[in-house]
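Encode chain A's predicted structure.
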Amino acid sequence: MQGSRRWGNAAPAARVSVRGRLGTVAAGGLAAHAAYIGLGRRPPGGAERWSRRNHRGEHLTLLEGPALAAGAAVALALVPGVSTRVRAAGLLAVGGAAAFGVLDDLADRGGSKGLRGHLGALARGEVTTGGIKIAGIGASGLAAAAVALGPRPRVRDVLPAAALVAGCANLVNLLDLRPGRALKVTLLAAPALLGGEAGGLVAAVTGPALGLLPDDLGERAMLGDGGANAAGALLGVAAVTGSGPRARGAALAAVVALTLASEKVSFTKVIEATPVLREFDLLGRRPR
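Encoded structure for chain A:
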């Protein structure tokens, strides 16, 4: 009988956890969609400032990026089972990545491109918006990692964790080249949303990603640097929170390898040449 009571108490707790996380997903999705609609009605600085042309040459808006960050912030404030410390780390990562990403979205004048281009410009003494973004996301990633790892973390733990947060932010941004691609990759983490504090962070980005995916696939909006960097940074904090030093080191090595590969190889060409990846990439998109 005692064992039955234990199991009877455990099941409702699990159901509450599931409800809470799914509630977070719903709240984040609704908040992101509401922010997108609100920003679209009164775009800061005017609609033209946020308008860009996509790969088809059609106009779309970058307001999806700030909307995703806003939805993630709301979800982080509400998600159950996450400590104040980890919640704060998520907010630092999202806020910093979104702010510096939007700066690059709006102020970039088409100079240096890519990580190598921006770092090369900095080496020559040229300050680009991309260079400012790299430094800014690096700083916010450092702060987020230090907070996520708890009081008095060791430098040897903080630095690779910070690099993982910033690296994930950049990697998701590298994928934002076709409709829905970056959001779909973000949603691949969704199965982890029921697990621990890291799952709470995943839940906080899953809702906004789902809420904004239809407009992204419909080529009415795109994440831009602001949204893609924010989504990636939050996933990076989730990886830091949910793993130990060895796992974080392996994840960082993978992120670095993919980032370096992107300087030599087009992700889009690789995806289009690989049947499984191509079908996943085309899922839900407009016909070519």
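The first strand starts at residue 51 and ends at 53.
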